[in-house]
Write a structure and sequence with these properties.
Protein name: NADP-dependent oxidoreductase domain-containing protein
Order of helices and strands: HHHEEEHEHHEHEHEHEHEHHHHEHHH
Radius of gyration: 21 Å
CATH topology of one domain: TIM Barrel
Organism: Marchantia polymorpha subsp. ruderalis
Pfam families: Aldo_ket_red (PF00248)
GO molecular function, one term: oxidoreductase activity
Shape: globular
CATH class of one domain: Alpha Beta
Number of strands: 10
């Protein structure tokens, strides 16, 4: 354990290193009072040895007694919010049932994603009526709460949680991922404290974050709030989470859920050898996600370098019989974090002898956006679990990505792109 403590040095995570291995927190704030009132109810360090990959296709997210199993490929429902085509609710529900039948039982949404929570509620109602509670119990709904940075009273928080419960047609929300726009407003701690109360009252099963940076994740953990995951942007182009964030996740057991992993579809065969500078010659950047991630490509290294990345991923894909998008997802699901790779290599050697490895991938699951009722990529999603990248594959990818800019220097830490 002493050797692990030195991992905090590059990123200044000394306090978190202490947290990870059981040193008590004495913050002197109202959370300390809260902890004494609820003594024993919150574990800052997640269970050592928790399976990130339960059977290859699933991950167990855990903080103390709070546990939630998810599929490692998650159905992202941002596409229901408009901009990708009109969603027919009946067709959307039918598509969700097909995803469940294919084994992809985890859906991600938000209170601000248009009708996403309502569609999920219709889907859950139909699953219960037509397929029974047993199948319904295998479905997991991850929602987000994205409030304006106002005063976070118990009433404000509970009203938001109850609204999502009603829309999603569930008594208990499997996971609430909390977003906060303005770190200068410390109301995010108040909101999370109230959410912890609501969790203990049975309205929420697990607490998580979305788009929080490493520093604020550390602050939240120091305040004893039981976070199981942080959802962040992460792709072959955007490797920011594998710097300080991943180090903190390895130390505390918090897992990453990633979005933008196929960059709205840019990381796919569709965009291979496409010159976006020539109008009317090829696919269009005609969705909110394609526009967003094209800007990320420009910040990282430009379209020509991105084409080199697509060509290398295509070579890897043809080698394994999978498309470029599958290579991109597999690569991210395998990530451990740049600061711990040497320790992991040693741990894996030990694991070969003793059959156990403490280190687990920092990524619990990756999002693939689903255009419900409009298009499907179920075969591509299934193929993620039918192959493994080897050292040659990773070297091919690195030969390109190392020439791109470090987006930590360009944008800042995870989520900073939303805070200007």
């Amino acid at each position: 354990m002493a050797s692990l403590a030195c991992l905090s040095a590059p990123s200044g995570l000394g306090n978190i290193t202490q947290l990870a291995f059981g040193t008590p927190v004495h913050s002197g704030n109202k959370r300390s009072i809260y902890q004494s009132r609820r003594k024993g109810s919150v574990s800052v360090r997640n269970e050592v040895g928790t399976d990130v990959s339960v059977d290859g296709k699933h991950a167990l997210l855990q903080s103390g007694n709070d546990k939630l199993q998810i599929t490692r490929v998650i159905n992202g429902m941002w596409q229901t919010s408009g901009g990708w085509g009109k969603i027919d609710r009946d067709l959307a529900v039918d598509a969700m049932i097909r995803h469940v039948d294919a084994g992809f039982t985890t859906f991600d949404m938000a209170d601000i994603y248009g009708p996403a929570e309502d569609i999920y509620g219709l889907f859950m109602n139909q699953i219960r009526r037509e397929r029974g509670e047993e199948l319904a119990s295998t479905v997991t709904g991850l929602t987000k709460w994205v409030p304006s940075p106002a005063k976070m009273t118990r009433g404000v928080v509970e009203a938001a949680i109850d609204r999502s419960r009603k829309r999603m047609d569930v008594q208990t929300l499997d996971m609430v991922q909390f977003h906060w726009w303005d770190y200068a407003n410390k109301g995010y701690l108040d909101a999370l404290l109230h959410m912890t109360d609501l969790k203990e009252e049975g309205k929420i099963k697990t607490l998580a974050l979305t788009n929080f940076d490493t520093k604020r994740l550390g602050v939240i953990l120091e305040n004893g709030i039981p976070i199981v995951s942080n959802q962040v942007q992460h792709s072959l182009v955007d490797m920011r989470p594998q710097q300080n964030m991943s180090e903190l996740c390895q130390l505390t057991g918090v897992k990453l859920i990633t979005y933008g992993t196929v960059m709205g579809g840019l990381l796919s065969n569709k965009w291979l050898d496409v010159n976006v500078n020539v109008p009317f010659m090829g696919p269009k950047l005609d969705t909110p996600s394609l526009g967003k991630y094209k800007q990320m490509v420009d910040s990282w290294g430009g379209w020509n370098l991105f084409q080199e990345l697509l060509r290398e991923c295509d070579k890897i894909g043809r080698k394994h019989g999978v498309p470029i998008s599958t290579v991109a997802v597999r690569y991210i699901l395998d990530q451990f974090g740049s600061h711990v790779k040497w320790f992991i290599s040693q741990a894996l050697r030990l694991a070969a002898n003793v059959g156990f490895c403490w280190f687990q991938p920092s990524v619990g699951g990756s999002m693939i956006g689903v255009r419900l009722g409009l298009s499907e990529h179920l075969r591509d999603s299934q193929s993620v679990f039918r192959f493994q990248l080897d050292d040659e594959d990773r070297d091919r990818i690195a030969s390109v990505t190392k020439r791109g800019k470090n987006l930590m220097d360009v944008i800042g830490d995870c989520g900073d792109e939303y805070r200007g």
